[in-house]
Amino acid sequence: MSKLGDLGARLYRGEVGYDFVGKRKIWYGISILITITAIVGLAVRGLNMGIEFEGGAVFNTPKTSVSVAKAEEAAEKASGHDALVQKLGNDTLRIQIAGVDTGKSDQVKAELANEFDMKADDINADLVGPSWGEQIANKAWQGLAIFMVLVVIYLAIAFEWRMAVAALIALIHDITITVGVYALVGFEVTPGTVIGLLTILGYSLYDTVVVFDSLKEQSKDLVKQTRFTYSEVANRSINSTLVRSINTTVVALLPVAGLLFIGGGFLGAGMLNDISLSLFVGLAAGAYSSIFIATPLVADLKETEPQMKALKKRVLAKRRAAAAKGESAEAPEPAGDDGRDDEPGDAASEGAAPAVVGPRSGPRSQPARNRGRGRPSGKRR
C-alpha cells in the first residue's frame, strides 16, 4: 500500500488525525480575511465585463504578422476605447472593442485595414448588443437563486437544517472568493465565466455532502455515550474523508490547471482563461470550505443545543474523574464502537480522550487463563 493510501486508512480508522474543528477560529479568521480582500477588490477595481455584457464589436482578421501589442494600439487609436486583442492559433487576430455601435464599427474596420495593410472586406466585424449579455446575467442569477433554495431544502430534509445553513454559507464563501479573484486579476468576465461559476457550486457541494454523510452516520445515538463530544465526532468525520476529498480535488484541478496555465498562459489561448480561472479558483475554494468552514460551522451550531451542551459536560466530567484517579486518558478503539456507554468498570472507557487522539498503542493486558478449570494445582488424578 502506498504511503498516501496507508495514511488514508489510518485517518479513516481514527488512528491519526488533525484537530480541524478545534482550530476553527483560525480557519474562520483566514476565510474572513480572504473574503474581505475579495470584496474590497470587487469594490475598488470592479469586474472587467466582456462585450457580451457591455455591448461592442468583434473584429476577426485574416492571417497576419501584426503583433498583439501593435494591433491593440491601433484598435484603441481607431475606436477611442480600450481593446482586447487575442492571437489565435492560425495567426489570425480577434479584436474586441466595447462601446462601439454600427456607424463606429465601419470606421474602425477601415482604419484597422489601413493599419494592417489588408483589405477592409477581409476583416470580419460582428456587433454584440448589451441586452444579450444582460439576459444571460439575469438567467444566471435566477438559476443561482433556484439552486440555492433547492440545496437548502434538500440538505434540510436529508440531513438537518444546521447542515443546510452551513453548506449555504460555504457556497456563498466560494462564489465571493472566485468573483473577487476575477476583480483582482482583471480577467474578462464572459458567459464562459458564468458557466464556470455555476459549475463550481456542484463540486463544492459534493465535498461538503461527503463529510456531512460521514458525520450523520457517526453521530447516531451520540447522546447515549460519554466518549466523544459532537465537535470531536465532527472532527473524526473530516479526517475519515480527508484523503478522499484531497484526491477528488487534485484530480479535478489537474485538467483545469492545464487549461489555465498551459493553454491560456503558455500557448496563448486566452479564450480559455475566462472559464478555466473560475473553475480553478472555485474548486480550490470549495475543497477548503468543505473541510475548514462547513463542518466546523455545523459543530458550532449543533453544540448550542441543550442536549449537546449536557453531553459535553458529561464527557469532560468523566475525563476529569479519570485523570484524578490517575487512569489512562487514551481514546478507545474506533473499531466496533457502537456509540453507547461502556459497561461499568471498563477502565478503557473511563479515560476516553478527544477523538483526534489515536487508539492505545503497545501491548494490551489480557486476563490470565485458568488452565486448571478450578482444580487444585498438581498432577491430575
Brief descriptors of the model:
381 residues, four-stranded antiparallel β-sheet, alpha+beta, Multidrug efflux transporter AcrB transmembrane fold, 2 domains, Alpha-Beta Plaits, disordered C terminus
Give your account of this protein's structure.
- The chain is of the alpha+beta class.
- The protein has twelve helices and six strands.
- Strands 3-4-2-5 form a four-stranded antiparallel sheet. It has a two-stranded parallel sheet with strand order 1-6.
- Strand 3 (83-87) and strand 4 (93-98) form a beta hairpin.
- Helix 2 packs across helix 7 and helix 6 packs antiparallel against helix 7 (161-185).
- The longest helix has 37 residues, at 230-266.
- It is elongated and about 95 Å long.
- Residues 329-381 have low confidence and may be disordered.
Structural class: alpha+beta
| Head-to-tail CA distance between termini | 55 Å
CATH class of the largest domain: Mainly Alpha
Give the quaternary arrangement of the chains. single chain
User: Into which percent range does the helicity of residues fall?
Assistant: 55-70%
Rough shape? elongated
Q: How many β-strands, per DSSP?
A: 6
Largest sheet: 4 strands, antiparallel
Using the 3D structure, state the CATH architecture of the largest domain.
Up-down Bundle
CATH superfamily of the largest domain: Multidrug efflux transporter AcrB transmembrane domain
Question: Which stretches are low in confidence, meaning pLDDT under 50 for 5 or more residues running?
Answer: 329-381
Mean pLDDT: 78
Biggest sheet: strand arrangement: 3-4-2-5
Total domain count:
2
Strand content: 5-15%
CATH topology of the largest domain: Multidrug efflux transporter AcrB transmembrane fold
Radius of gyration: 30 Å
Tally of helical runs: 12
- Element-level helix/strand string: HHEHEHEEHEHHEHHHHH
